[in-house]
Structures are given as structure tokens and as C-alpha cells.
Amino acid sequence: MYAETAVTPALSAIAPARHWARDRLSEAGVDDGRLDLLVLLVSELVTNAVAHADPPVVLRVHVDEERTRVEVTDGVRDVPVVRDPPPTALGGRGVMFVDRLASSWGTSEEEGDAAKAVWFELRHDDVSELGHFSTER
């Protein structure tokens, strides 16, 4: 399964993008353990793109038998950096979550209107080691 959607470059677009991803992943047959973790990581990528980048922002989801790949493209060439903020910091943990919870992640240069893609992959067999995550509120 492959799907993509444009994301409005505003913080108010994060929840709709998260719900869109949840719906597409559910339609692709992703089970609850993987689904919650994937939606959490989608939320982190989209948040970074709308908070720190320029349009156009596009969310892509690709599910095959071995893994799920998610990427978010945006209009800025600056790549995200893994930070380890102190417990009192209000933010700065998104890329750290992706780094620690995804099977792999990275960035790639894009052609056209988008400058870069930030992506992660979650191998379906990796989830059993990570436990259960919930992103619903």
C-alpha cells in the first residue's frame, strides 16, 4: 500500500495528519502494536516539518510485507538533528524518539518543490521488542 497527502504547514495540521496516517495504516492491515508506534513517529516527523520547515509539506506512507516506511518532505534543506534535552526542556525530543524507536531513519534530497525528505522505517518484526505504545488521547 502506498498513499500520500499534502499537509498544511501549520501546527493545527498535526492531528489531522496523524489521523490520516492511522486510517491509511489501518486500511493496510497494520496491527495495533505497530499502529500506535507508527502514528507516534508520524506525529514527530510532521511536527518537525510544520514547525521548522517551509512548504510544501507532504506525508507519504508505504507498507509492504517486511516494513512500513514513512517520509515527510518539506521545502528546507536543513536536516534534523538528534538532541538529548534535559528533562525540564519543553521540546526537542522528536528526532530522538524517531532515532530510538524506528528500525532506521534518515534524510534524502528531493527534486522539484521539496528540498528534502525525512524518513523512517519500522520493520514489522522489530515491534515485538519495543512493547506497546498509544497515541490516542
CATH architecture: 2-Layer Sandwich
Order of strands, main sheet, comes to 1-2-3-5-4
Rough outline? globular
Mean pLDDT: 89
CATH-defined superfamily: Histidine kinase-like ATPase, C-terminal domain
Helix fraction, binned, reads 25-40%
CATH topology: Heat Shock Protein 90
Question: What class do helices, strands and sheet pairing give?
Answer: alpha+beta
| Number of discrete domains | 1
Parts with pLDDT < 50 across at least 5 consecutive residues: 128-137
The level-1 CATH class: Alpha Beta
Instruction: Please report the total strand number as a whole number.
Output: 5
Counting H and I runs of at least 4 residues, what is the number of helices? 4
Work out the oligomeric state of the chains in this entry. Answer: single chain
